[in-house]
Design a protein that fits this description.
This protein is α/β, with parallel strands linked by helices and about 325 residues long. The protein has helices spanning about 15-25, 55-60, 75-80, 95-110, 125-135, 160-175, 260-265, 280-295, 305-320; strands spanning about 5-10, 30-35, 50, 65, 85-90, 115, 140-150, 180-190, 200-205, 210-215, 225-230, 235-240, 245-250, 270-275, 325.
Length: about 325
């Protein structure tokens, strides 16, 4: 079987990594790229650099990856859908949920794969964590707390930290628990002098009763990507920078020191750091996209799922603006 012909739109910080991985992925052939600013990172080699999306489509594509600013997702995706090209767009799906709705409908109505690049789902630590949760290893889940902090990325200008970074945590939380968000309450601030918010704290409740907390910002000098899932048997801690997963077990040995036992609530048990096979998440994501196009299985993040995540993010921003708890989907 011949390789699937792939086009890439956008050669920025994320696009250059897509170019590298697409070239190395079995069954795919990167045949052309398009970027209005040219090949600023020098990654295309002898590939065709198209002057427009229309020109790139004219080369003949089976699938495409869109790695451009969020405001440009809709019109590019709709062009690709009209041309019958299976498409993966980087997250968030679009700048507004109405745009995301139009994108999802365009691909669904044509029977095309429309996917969103929520890459954290393909992180080895989170994939192992999800399997363990689904197997019941943690028992009942009480809470998911995430911390996603780091310096301001110069590449982001069109959206704030909620739509750019917090959508990772919104998506992975819903995916880990297989539950939608019910309510959110959020507070934001902007301290870097830019148009959009650069720091947010979010508390929420899922429809299955699990409570959540997300701390996200572009103002921290250290980079942190932590997910903590706490349940009746202990806590899992996933670090998606290092792809490490650690389990802190509730102890089974009684504590004889009464005052300490009363303070702790549960006793400290064994701590286990799991040995995981650590494949690059971007490669796993693009392989999943390839397999979905080939009809093998569809493990991609669908545009409908990306749209659901964006609607939660919009509820977060509404909550911060109105300073009240928001029921997702009620407005």
């Amino acid at each position: 079987m011949s390789n699937l012909r792939v086009g890439l739109i956008g050669l920025g910080m994320m696009g250059r990594h897509h170019a590298r991985v697409l070239r190395a992925t079995e069954g795919l052939e990167l045949v052309g790229v398009a970027d209005a600013y040219g090949d600023t990172h020098g990654v295309i080699g002898d590939l065709t650099l198209a002057a427009s999306v229309e020109e790139l489509i004219g080369i003949g594509l089976d699938m495409a990856v869109v790695a451009v600013p969020t405001d440009d997702h809709e019109h590019i995706a709709l062009q690709l859908a009209a041309a019958g090209v299976h498409t993966l767009v980087e997250k968030p799906i679009a700048s507004t949920s109405s745009a995301g709705q139009r994108m999802a409908e365009a691909f669904e109505s044509r029977g095309l794969i429309g996917a969103v690049g929520h890459i954290e789902r393909f992180n080895p630590a989170l994939q192992s964590l999800r399997q363990r949760i689904m197997s019941g290893d943690l028992g009942e889940i009480y809470q998911i707390a995430t911390r996603r902090q780091g310096p301001f990325p110069a590449r982001i200008a069109d959206v704030g930290v909620v739509k750019d970074l917090a959508t990772h945590d919104i998506d992975l939380t819903a995916w880990l628990t297989q539950s939608d968000y019910d309510t959110v309450f959020a507070q934001t601030t902007s301290r870097s002098g830019r148009q959009h918010e650069d720091m947010v704290t979010i508390t929420g409740r899922l429809t299955n009763g699990i409570i959540t907390n997300h701390l996200v910002n572009w103002l921290s000098p250290m980079k942190e990507r932590i997910t903590v899932v706490t349940g009746e048997r202990g806590s899992y801690v996933a670090d998606t920078v290092s792809a490490d997963l650690t389990f802190h077990e509730n102890g089974t040995i009684a504590t004889e020191w009464d005052s300490v036992a009363a303070f702790r609530g549960v006793s400290e048990g064994s701590v286990t750091r799991f040995a995981l096979a650590k494949r690059e998440p971007l490669r796993a994501e693009l392989e999943a996209f390839r397999d979905a196009v080939l009809g093998k299985h569809n493990w991609t993040v669908s545009m409908r799922e990306g749209l659901a995540t964006l609607r939660v993010a919009e509820s977060v921003l509404r909550s911060a603006r109105l300073r009240e708890c928001i029921t997702v989907g009620s407005w």
